[in-house]
Design brief:
alpha/beta, Chemotaxis Receptor Methyltransferase Cher, domain 1, seven-stranded mixed beta sheet
């Protein structure tokens, strides 16, 4: 493939729609510029398979036409659909459970005490996908502080994909997913049947009131002005180049309180020699200078 790509206009082995390396390079550049996601040559077939669905949906006949569309002002909505198609939304309740154990045992006692003193407590799920992560945070919080919703406590859930935000706000999941939630927390779930005959479940109002969903591109302006006590940003940076990763880690540090923690994905690392974090546990980081 690398050989073919050096020839401008040469086709990429695909199928139904004409797709050249020029098309791929334009799409890769747009995705990197809009969302920071790096698409190497090896992703060409993935790009084709995911975007071919978009071409069918909007009635285009080639990737050349698709590239022309997303480069125009009129194509702003389709650019968002393109970015959404390139993101991978793999998630589950209480994924990487050691983070929730650390949150419960080492962080929440201090935050609960602060909330009871009337202080503002904020936790951020910075790539929330369809909502399983922020709801897991809220459930963990309620175990430590059953009356959390009566205090100035909030979990911000953000994602670049508006479809994921909509699913998180809807807050209903297949009944089989209930098994991912610890038994002592399942009492916060309620049964519903909003999808035809499929049995689904949601959460009680006390859980839902703790979570606020917002669409947010981590590469763009962040509207939040207050600082966070906890940030979860897991399995996102693996799609960015090192420069973008370091820039976002630095922005997180500026948005965090002195004694706050950052939880990242199992295959991600922070260069603690160059950035203001220190390792505090398995893929768990603390701001340097914070009290231990």
């Amino acid at each position: 493939m690398a050989e073919a790509r050096r020839e401008r206009g040469s086709p990429v082995p695909t199928g139904e729609f004409p797709f050249t390396w020029d098309d791929f390079m334009k799409i890769a550049a747009l995705v990197h510029g809009e969302a920071g996601i790096v698409l190497p040559d090896s992703k060409a077939n993935l790009v084709y398979s995911r975007l071919a669905k978009r071409l069918r949906a909007i009635g285009l006949r080639s990737f050349r036409d698709y590239c022309a569309l997303v480069e125009t002002d009129e194509g702003a909505g389709e650019r968002q659909a393109l970015i959404a198609a390139m993101t991978t939304n793999v998630t589950k309740f209480f994924r990487e459970p050691h983070h929730f154990e650390h949150l419960k045992d080492h962080v929440l006692p201090r935050l609960v005490a602060a909330a009871r003193r009337g202080e503002r407590v904020r936790l951020w799920s910075a790539a929330c996908s369809s909502g399983e992560e922020p709801y897991s945070i809220a459930l963990t919080l309620l175990q430590a502080m059953p009356d959390a919703s009566k205090h100035d406590v909030l979990v911000l859930a953000s994602d670049i994909d508006p479809d994921m935000i909509a699913r998180g706000e809807a807050g209903t999941y297949p009944a089989a997913r209930l098994a991912d939630i610890p038994p002592n927390m399942r009492g916060k779930a309620i049964e519903t049947n909003r999808a035809g005959t499929e049995l689904r479940f949601g959460f009680t109002d006390e859980v839902r009131k703790l979570v606020r969903f917002r669409q947010l591109n981590l590469l763009r302006e962040w509207p939040m002005r207050g600082a966070f006590d906890i940030i979860f940003c897991r399995n996102v940076m693996i799609y960015f180049d090192q420069q973008t990763q370091d820039a976002i880690w630095t922005r997180f540090a500026r948005q965090m309180k002195p004694e706050s923690y950052l939880y990242i994905g199992h295959s991600e690392r922070i260069a603690t020699d160059a950035l203001p974090f220190e390792l505090a546990g398995q893929t768990t980081y603390r701001l340097k200078g914070s009290r231990k």
